[in-house]
Design brief:
Blueprint lengths: L2 H10 L3 H17 L4 E3 L2 E4 L4 H8 L2 E2 L5 E2 L1 H5 L2 H15 L3 E6 L5 E3 L4 H7 L8 H14 L2 E8 L9 E7 L4 E6 L2 E7 L6 E5 L3 E5 L11 H5 L1 H19 L6 E4 L6 H15 L17 E4 L9 H16 L19 H28 L5 E5 L2 H4 L3 H12 L11 H7 L26
Antiparallel strand pairs: 1-2, 3-4, 5-6, 5-15, 7-8, 7-12, 9-10, 10-11, 13-14
Helix pairs in contact: 1-2, 5-7, 5-11, 9-11
Length: 440
């Protein structure tokens, strides 16, 4: 939508709220330079992101010679497992909406239409879990994820958010104009192109954001490890498909004529290079013939150890403990128990990623202080039932424990239980009287 269109809409509406909203948006659009070329009502020219185009049409190679792309990277089981574990952790976390009251204290708001978009259905074809899955996948493979903010432009709505439409990174080109960002989007459904100001796009960045794009885990930290894994998997598959037969040479002390060599080669192929269900008969070599291996067997080349190393390297790049994807050969340095491993994973991998998401959501959805959203990490930090019970007991306080910092109803709320009468007061331990009988 062009700046002129915003201006026309503002003049057509009598609502001062929407007029102010559209006027502010017009200024933002003009500052970003989003005035696309329009012919007969159709956008005909948008900018392109050179880095994105190079990544799309010239896939990055690896030291093994294999091109590492979205599709090939997801064929590596370790990449798939890391992304699925990260996404599985994120989809469990509800996003709560808060506001700051007059006393400066935060209080959780009752579910609003925005809460529904963030936790249930961001757009017609997407559930919240699928959206979060997609954000994690784009973060790992591309570095950035883009979600369009769909707004209600009716006079009575004042630009309220009505939907969050996830987009494919290939369909979004980012360009910088001054200190603002503009997004040129190709709409797959209609085949048309349009431009958006940064206020209408949720841009979830990964590590290394340079003001336009972030660094992809797969294309930077794990590119060679992924390429080596692809090469090792193909080599082992091809070797097994050939009956685990290494490359060999049939040598003779005496010379063979061309027909003898051809017959010997054909005999060997007929004996060994057939389907896996065929019976393998020994090949008889006469006149001093012997077999000399030309290729290194998987044991000598330490292929299995190499594959374990690549798995650990990929896990390190994604910040996922190897034990979480089934690698149990080594003890995790984050602790021996599942609870300690989970705590380390939440603190050092999930929390920084979610912090970036929360900041983007808050600055684009609210535009001012007073309200904010936050991921609840309680589901991942509660631990097992015994540890949870001990934590609640300490929080409630009591004789020998001291004052409580939880009320009964606060704990019941965490467990999705209704409040009880008299459960809103925290426990306070009795104070010893002083020498004169007055409270100490």
């Amino acid at each position: 939508m062009s700046a002129r269109t915003f201006d026309l809409q503002a003049r057509q509406h009598s609502s001062s709220v929407l007029a102010n909203f559209l006027a502010g948006r017009q200024g933002a659009v003009e500052r970003a330079g989003i005035v696309p070329a329009v012919r007969n009502g159709t956008l005909t020219a948008v900018s392109s992101d050179n880095d994105a185009m190079r990544a799309l049409f010239q896939p990055l190679g690896s030291s093994s010679g294999y091109a590492v792309t979205d599709s090939t990277a997801m064929m590596v089981s370790t990449v798939y497992a890391c992304l699925s574990k990260l996404a599985g952790a994120v989809v469990q976390l509800p996003i709560h909406q808060y506001r700051v009251n007059n006393s400066g204290e935060r209080e959780r708001m009752s579910p609003t239409p925005l809460w529904w978009l963030l936790n249930e259905e961001p757009h017609d074809a997407w559930t919240s879990a699928s959206w979060k899955d997609w954000i994690v996948k784009c973060w790992g493979l591309r570095g950035d994820q883009f979600t369009r903010i769909v707004r209600d432009t009716r006079a009575s709505a004042g630009g309220a958010v009505t939907g969050l439409l996830p987009l494919h990174p290939d369909c979004v080109a980012v360009r910088r104009n001054g200190y603002r960002l503009a997004y040129d989007v190709y709409d797959v459904a209609t085949g048309k192109q349009y431009s958006l100001d940064q206020d209408d796009m949720l841009h979830f960045p990964g590590f290394g954001f340079d003001g336009v794009r972030s660094m992809s885990v797969v294309q930077w930290a794990a590119r060679n490890a992924v390429g080596n894994s692809l090469a090792a998997a193909e080599y082992m598959g091809r070797t097994i498909g050939d009956g685990a037969m290494p490359q060999i040479a049939l040598t003779y002390p005496n010379s063979l004529n061309e027909k003898q060599a051809a017959d010997l080669r054909a005999s060997f192929v007929a004996t060994y290079m057939v389907g896996p269900s065929a019976r393998k008969l020994p090949l008889v070599l006469t006149q001093g013939g012997k077999v000399d291996p030309l290729s290194i067997n998987p044991v000598d080349m330490e292929l299995l150890a190499s594959r374990r190393f690549e798995k650990e390297d990929i896990c390190q790049a994604f910040g996922v403990p190897p034990v979480m994807i089934g690698e149990n050969e080594k003890t995790s340095s984050w602790g021996t128990g599942v609870e300690q491993i989970t705590l380390g994973f939440v603190r050092f991998t999930l929390a920084p990623m979610l912090c970036r998401w929360e900041e983007e959501l808050n600055r684009k959805l609210f535009r001012r202080a007073g309200q904010f959203v936050e991921f609840s990490l309680d589901a991942l930090l509660r631990g097992d039932s015994k540890a949870k019970a001990e934590s609640f007991r300490a929080g409630l306080g009591g004789p020998g424990t001291g004052d409580g910092y939880y009320t009964v109803n606060e704990i019941r709320k965490l467990e999705n239980m209704p409040p009880i009468e008299g459960g809103d007061q925290p426990y306070r331990a009795p104070r010893d009287p002083g020498p004169t009988g007055a409270p100490a």
